[in-house]
Design a protein that fits this description.
alpha+beta; 21% strand; disordered C terminus
């Protein structure tokens, strides 16, 4: 093994070659089930054709992880002491040999091999990962298919994958054209995943050819897979997978991808990922509780599920869980849980806020999947050009390009060493006005039909966001749901002050903006015979602007009049003017202008009360300021204050609040803050009727936008069109040092229903400007999107006392930390792992520990063991020059590794204990079958697969321990909650088995344990039903003795001469994952 830089002393290892491991689970004849499991699953073929013994696997694993540590230190020129390392490695070896700890199953198989150290990649060592579909889009091929092809590739390496269905509704299905294109599938994991990508691209993008596949390069069925174990499945599983997915999307053009589509793709991929008939990976899917289609995916009573849950279906390949907060009502899914145990439940708020449940909230996993703070689609985002709605901006992204947004430069972000975001990371410096431009992604939809809350502020503006979105307030970053009405103040964002005053219009767009502003303020559209006429009214001294208005319309007509036809025999004229002496009014009327503005801007009678989109989108332009100046000319006044000019203001009065809100947004984009107020409610008033008397008229609610602290800036850079009014603004609002509107007080926070929500990423300051307010950029995702986690096993019941266990924890922790030092084959995964260094150091055999040593000892070992690990992580991370691990402990399902060490699995009580018969299935040609038959064990063909599978009956005797049928669902759940409280800062994998008489207790249990667990799932047990070739069977003492009567010892030489590579292992037993996604 020349690729290993660290070697144990040969003489030290030689001593162990003569010792017999403490194999457990006696099956008679001097044979042990744990040894059979080791030979079958974890012993690799050596070059001489024999299989590794336990002492050799221990050596390979210890030398492997110490080589990673040594190589890292040499590469980074940090201290490395061979003598100390040899001493530590020998202690780690001894403890592993005694089954006090082990790497996880994948570590036992691959640590210290060329698959890891030759390529210097840890992909083969990773146990589980997480992929989000929340950002799939047609911006690029990669974005459209990334989570699907990456899941395929990770499954091919044996990694268990969690995924969500957040991509539902984000892609439209298209029918491929009749043209064809052939893809020759390479015989490697990348080739298989690329084949899936090509097929999906043909349906996710328009006008793509039909993809045909050539499978000729794929190895035939039965060919050995040396690197990852097992034998080749041949091309058939891939072919069936791809054709099933093709059928899934065919003839559905125009439909959107659904949560069912996402889960079906992933499940079919997992089904195709087989090695010699052995399932290689397991999946966990996460979805919202209000998605009925997702929740019912395993309801075999529904006709639409007949194929996916049938004999040749694919529903079995994932456990499905709903993502909820701990205070949500679960009654609507109880009936489904009671039938088949699914869906499971992930309490996202608990997983996000807590590490261990006994410790204070630390929000270390704020990125955790399921929490994506977002804004409603009509929220306006401030870019370097102007305002654009989140929904509209989401449609503009091309090939993942970035855009420039305006953020408040008074807010800075200083990352902390732990890479987490804390309130103190953001600093607000109010000493100077300082906007800045930052690069950000385009907006993307993050969830459909999400619950949103509306926040109304004292400056009259409002916004809608998910309850967990963080806003910049005077007391730091605060979630919308935690804002205090009448007390909290949100930071108001302002853009750049203009470089110069307006003066006269210089472009056609500026003239158009003026004309639209005048019509919106004191104009209208009158119905004409053929077209609507645009009308501008002027009264009193405002008539001084009449000459310029006529000039602007005439120049516009001269440039564009010939492009429009009046629809009558008479050609358009530029305009007509009218004088109404008794009202001191002048009126300009133009049919041409009505047609022109409607054609170019959509500005007409129906839209004149709405700020034109061109003005909002270009709010930082001179044209937008001209529009506001025209409104100010019509409806603006100077507010004279009794305290003097330093307290004067500029006001624009309107009955249309939305228009004034938009005026304020345009001004904010230009560095000018103000507030919108309600001045008069809608009412009935007596008013002159034009006939010398008065009549009752219905009046609309009246509003004002007031500029006080920035009155001088408004007067200087916007003002009003008329010279007299503009001069009055400047005269009455000289430059003074006024208190700035830095914050706006929260007036109300109220539930606003459900809407599609959107978000973006900005990584420098991690903020954005939404509807005039400074907000944190939207959240990210885990395990994070793309993150993988390294697991490692410890067996506390195999220790004498806690001091002994503490020494084991040191080695187990260091193994996990070492694996995080190697990159994987996936760049996105490496980015997250480098930041988080997440480890899942697991306890297993916990129920056995409780039954033999009690709950008090378990609390002592768990709590003090956790504190010890945190101390070691701080020390070793400093030595290695890497970040401390974001999380370090877990309880995993364990599966066959627990059998290897002869302990119970995770927090679960065993299916059977004492004396029972265990049936084990082997492939028909497996050499172990012949050895077992020769030793006297009963074998028979599998009744459900008689042509290729053999069932062996093993009479097992273990230490007495309560079985799962002797323990209530309450005690099972309490043990999981106990470990979440005192040991696991990741999640505890817990599947609570329940008997028929406990069905009605599931609901009360979930309510009682809400907030005490991060996840839980259920599995029904049959009552008294024994079926043929069941995995566990209870038998009488006489029958048990009879089955063991004539058994013989399998010669060690024969057992380790089996020329068969280990079976491919999977990351878990299909349980709830031990890491919170």
């Amino acid at each position: 093994m020349s690729f290993l830089s660290f070697r144990l002393n040969d003489a030290f290892v030689e001593k162990y070659s003569k010792r017999d491991p403490n194999w457990g689970m006696d099956i008679g004849g001097g044979n042990k089930l744990s040894e059979l499991i080791f030979v079958s699953k974890y012993s690799r073929l050596k070059d001489n054709g024999t299989k590794e013994e336990w002492y050799e696997v221990c050596r390979r694993c210890i030398e492997g992880y110490f080589s990673i540590l040594k190589d890292h230190c040499k590469k980074n020129l940090t201290p490395w002491n061979d003598l100390k390392a040899q001493k530590s490695a020998q202690d780690a070896y001894d403890r592993m040999f005694q089954f006090k700890w082990t790497p996880p199953g994948r570590g036992l198989q691959f640590m210290g091999t060329d698959a890891v150290h030759g390529e210097q990649l840890s992909s083969a060592l990773q146990n589980c990962s997480y992929l989000s579909t929340g950002k799939i889009s047609t911006h690029s091929r990669k974005e459209a298919v990334y989570p699907f092809v990456t899941l395929f590739e990770q499954c091919m390496t044996g990694v268990g994958v969690g995924f969500d269905v957040k991509g539902a509704g984000r892609l439209e299905i298209n029918e491929p054209t009749s043209d064809t294109e052939t893809f020759v599938v390479p015989d490697n994991r990348e080739g298989w995943s690329d084949a899936l990508g090509e097929l999906l691209v043909s349906f996710f993008f328009k006008n793509k050819p039909t993809i045909e596949f050539d499978y000729s390069e794929i190895r035939p069925l039965g060919a050995p897979l040396k690197r990852f174990g097992g034998t080749a499945s041949g091309p058939e599983p891939l072919e069936r997978c791809l054709e099933s997915i093709r059928s899934q999307f065919s003839n559905r053009s125009g439909e959107s991808i659904t949560s069912r589509d996402i889960v079906d793709i992933m499940n079919k991929v997992a089904k195709a990922t087989v090695a010699g008939g052995a399932r290689r990976s397991a999946l966990i899917s996460l979805g919202p509780i209000d998605d009925e289609d997702f929740v019912n995916l395993k309801n075999w009573n529904l006709p639409e599920n007949s194929e996916r849950t049938g004999e040749d279906g694919w529903a079995w390949s994932s456990n499905n869980s709903v993502v909820i907060d701990s205070d949500e009502d679960l009654d609507r899914i109880l009936d489904k849980i009671q039938v088949n145990g699914e869906p499971g439940v992930l309490f996202i708020d608990v997983a996000r806020k807590f590490s261990r449940l006994c410790d204070p909230v630390d929000n270390k996993d704020w990125r955790i999947e399921g929490i994506n703070p977002c804004f409603s689609g009509d929220t306006m985002l401030l870019t370097n050009e102007g305002w654009v709605s989140f929904e509209e901006n989401s449609l503009k992204s091309v090939d993942g390009e970035t855009q420039s947004i305006v953020v408040d430069g008074r807010v800075s972000y200083d990352p902390s060493d732990d890479s987490l975001e804390h309130p103190e990371n953001w600093k607000v410096d109010l000493s100077g006005y300082h906007p800045t431009v930052s690069e950000a992604s385009y907006v993307f939809k993050t969830k459909e039909n999400a619950e949103v809350y509306e926040v109304v502020a004292s400056n009259g503006l409002s916004f809608k966001a998910t309850p967990d979105h963080l806003m910049a307030t005077k007391r730091g970053m605060v979630a919308v749901e935690d804002l205090i009405e009448g007390k909290d103040k949100i930071l108001v964002t302002k853009g750049f002050l203009p470089e110069r005053e307006l003066g006269d219009p210089e472009t056609q767009e500026e003239i158009d903006a003026i004309l639209m502003g005048l019509i919106a303020g004191d104009g209208c559209f009158k119905k004409g015979v053929i077209t609507d006429k645009a009308v501008i009214n002027l009264w009193g001294k405002d008539k001084s602007l009449l000459g310029k208005i006529k000039e602007w319309i005439q120049s516009t007509f001269d440039s564009f009049g010939s492009f429009y036809e009046s629809g009558s025999n008479r050609p358009f004229t530029a305009f007509n003017t009218f004088a109404i002496e008794e009202r001191d009014e002048a009126r300009v009327s133009s049919s041409f202008l009505g047609v022109y503005l409607k054609d170019k801007y959509g500005f007409c009678a129906e839209t004149k009360g709405v700020m034109p989109e061109s003005i909002m989108a270009n709010a930082c332009s001179r044209a937008s300021r001209f529009y506001v100046a025209a409104l100010a000319f019509c409806d603006g006044t100077v507010g004279i204050h009794s305290k003097g000019k330093s307290s004067n203001s500029i006001r624009i009065n309107q009955s249309n609040k939305q228009l004034l809100d938009d005026v304020l947004l345009v001004c904010l984009a230009n560095g000018i803050s103000g507030s919108v107020y309600s001045r008069r409610e809608a009412q009935t008033r007596m008013m002159p009727n034009g006939k010398g008397g008065s009549s009752a008229y219905e009046t609309k609610e009246n509003f004002e936008v007031i500029f006080s602290s920035n009155a001088f800036e408004f007067a200087k850079f916007i003002g009003a069109l008329g010279e007299a009014k503009h001069e009055e603004m400047l005269r009455e609002n000289p430059f003074t040092s006024r208190k700035q509107n830095t914050y706006a007080k929260v007036e109300s926070v109220s539930y606003a229903g459900k809407e599609d929500v959107y978000c973006l990423r900005e990584d420098e300051r991690r903020i954005l400007c939404a509807n005039g307010f400074t907000a944190r950029r939207c959240g990210e995702q885990p395990l994070e999107d793309g993150e993988a986690c390294t697991l490692v096993e410890t067996f506390p019941s195999n220790h004498e006392d806690f001091d002994d266990y503490k020494e084991t924890l040191k080695h187990a922790y260091l193994y996990g930390k070492a694996v995080t030092l190697l990159p994987t084959a996936w760049p996105e995964t490496n980015e997250v792992m480098t930041r988080n260094r997440r480890i899942g150091l697991s306890m297993t055999g916990i129920s056995q520990f409780v039954d033999t040593r009690g709950w008090t000892d378990l609390k002592h070992w768990s709590n003090n063991g956790y504190e010890f690990i945190q101390h070691r992580d701080k020390k070793y991370s400093e030595w290695l020059g890497v970040r401390e691990s974001i999380k370090t402990t877990t309880v995993k399902p364990s599966g066959t590794v627990s059998l290897l060490a002869s302990v119970t699995a995770g927090v679960h009580w065993p299916v059977a204990s004492g004396q029972f018969v265990r049936t084990v299935r082997y492939s028909k040609g497996d050499p172990l079958v012949a050895l077992l038959e020769e030793a006297g064990y009963k074998t028979e063909k599998s009744f459900d697969d008689p042509s290729s599978t053999v069932v062996v009956y093993l009479p097992v005797e273990t230490e007495e321990c309560r079985s799962e049928r002797e323990v209530s669902i309450w005690e099972k759940a309490e043990l999981a909650a106990f470990m979440q409280r005192w040991w696991s800062d990741n999640s505890v994998s817990c599947t609570v088995t329940f008997q028929p008489h406990e069905v009605d207790q599931i609901g009360p249990l979930l309510k009682a344990k809400a907030g005490q667990m991060k996840s839980i799932s259920f599995l029904p047990l049959s009552e008294g039903e024994v079926y043929r070739q069941a995995p566990y069977m209870t038998v009488s003492d006489d029958e048990f003795a009879f089955r063991r009567k004539n058994l013989n010892k399998i010669p060690k030489k024969n057992l380790y001469s089996v020329e068969k590579e280990f079976e491919a292992d999977k990351f878990c037993t299909g349980d709830q994952c031990e890491i919170s996604f």
